[in-house]
Amino acid sequence: NDVNNRYLSYDEQMQFLNTLSQQYPDDVKLQKLGNSYEGRALTAVRIGDDGSNKPIVWIDAGVHAREWISYNVALYLVYTIVTQPVYRDLLNSVQLIVVPNTNPDGYEYSRTNDRMWRKTRSRFSNSRCGGADANRNYPFFWGTQGVSHHQCSEIYCGSRPQSEPEVLALTNAIQREETRIKGYIALHSYGQEILYPWGHTMHTYPSDVKDLIRVGKAMAKAIKAVNNTDYNVVNSGDGLYPAAGASDDWAKSRGIKYSYTIELSPVDDYTGFVLPEERINQVCREAFQAIQVLMIEVKTMF
Length: 302
Ligand code: 0X9
Ligand code: ZN
Hints:
Radius of gyration: 18 Å
Active site: 263 (proton donor/acceptor)
Distance between the termini: 36 Å
Largest sheet: 8 strands, mixed
Strand content: 15-25%
Cofactor: Zn(2+)
Helix content: 25-40%
Keywords: Metal-binding, Signal, Zinc
Structural class: alpha/beta
CATH superfamily: Zn peptidases
Bound molecules: N~2~-sulfamoyl-L-arginine, zinc ion
GO biological process, one term: proteolysis
Organism: Caenorhabditis remanei (Caenorhabditis vulgaris)
Strand order of the largest sheet: 1-2-4-3-5-8-6-7
Number of strands: 8
């Protein structure tokens, strides 16, 4: 398959998922969560959903359009866990929900017009600038720190929490099952970091931060075992920068215990967001190991 050696268009991504769900109808169920601003379907892939009450790990990717590697990591995860018989056991005790493309409008714009596009593609009347940073648009300490209220900014937080249809669809979908969701990862790039809450401000941590660090380090260790790549485990507010209205903080605020943002490869700003296609495969294999660690951690959480 293609997902580990080239970047796919949104249509190709959907095609890939459709084919997989036809080949594995019992294991791969596609669920439409809503539409993007420009009307593209936001699709969740439900894996190991056999109707029983299992803990859920929720993975979403590509809220920032230019972070292309995240889409491939999400699709590789879906493909690998479904096609490799060795993961059958795990899927019997944990359900995986993957939203491989949370910002399809932005992604297509990044592919065709502006490689460095980050935001959604929503339009505002009387403004020459469009789009909001969907990772500043979640309803938790919305609009407070590390955001801009100017429409032309790369970190414009939107006119109100959940102003972006993509964020509204995702928050609604997560809330429908939040009591069962024990792990959440937002896939981003770049930096090779596993970020844990809180990120809306500095020097502020959840009461169970020790658990978040412990599992974060286990994920980093699993990544390193693949090809000696280092990912640092850091608090997002202290180690990166405070930024309010991000999905990881919101997920944590809803009671999802293990909530992270992973900044995938590279670590250097030489290639930055423009990761060469030859490197897709390794990044996918590394992130897959980290996600497996999280699935194993939550499988007894009921
Ligand atoms: O700024 C972001 O949204 C993320 N970094 S990125 O370079 N991919 O844009 C980090 C978000 C970390 N989480 C919180 N600050 N809550
Ligand atoms: Zn990002």
